[in-house]
Amino acid sequence: MNIILIYKYRPLSQLHKFMEIHPLNRRRFTPLWAGLLLGGMMAPCLPTVSLADDSTFALTIRGHKFEPANLRVPSGTKVKLVVRNEDPTPEEFESYELNREKVVPANSEIVVFVGPLPPGSYPYFGDFHQDSAQGVLTVE
After folding, report:
1. Residue 91, pLDDT above cutoff 80
2. Residue 89 banded pLDDT, cuts 50, 70, 90
């Protein structure tokens, strides 16, 4: 409690003087600084997870149809689907099997992430034009 009150009434420029005057408080902050320093040195050694460009696939809605109608993607990886609607009306990308439902406004695009998925076929459709906007995501 005393530390908080002292910090509250001392300017930050005098904080280092406070630490030098009170060695007990210096010991409290040493593990914090050591942890930050060690963490900063170890950060380049840690593996990084990134979404590579090869896991991005494009779908186009043109004339109330998906192009390509059969999109092939690799199994066991997270996939980024960029759905571009070139029609003057909105469409909805929907798939019960993928558990996805997202409106694609007219002349714009959305991003849908799926996976990692086991091999199989996952149908999707345009909810506003179900008779023509249909496709299958084939995971191999």
Report:
1. yes
2. very high
Q: How far apart are the first and last CA of the chain?
A: 61
Collapsing DSSP to helix, strand or coil, 87 comes out as coil
How far apart are the C-alpha atoms of 109 and 125, rounded to whole Å? 16
Name the CATH superfamily, with its identifier, for domain 53-139. Cupredoxins -  blue copper proteins (2.60.40.420)
CA nearest neighbour of 126 among 75, 80, 59: 59
Q: What is the pTM of this model?
A: 0.60
Task: List, as one string, the DSSP characters of 46-60.
Answer: S------GGGEEEEE
Q: Give, for 139, the enclosing helix (H) or strand (E).
A: strand 134-139
Distances (CA, A) of 6 to 11, 16, 111: 10, 13, 51
| Cα 66 to Cα 85: distance, rounded to the nearest angstrom | 9
49-78: pLDDT as tens digits: 444 456 899 999 999 999 999 999 999 999
Q: Give residue 97's Cα distance to chain centre.
A: 21
| 54: its two tokens | 């090869």
Domain ranges of the chain: 2-45, 53-139
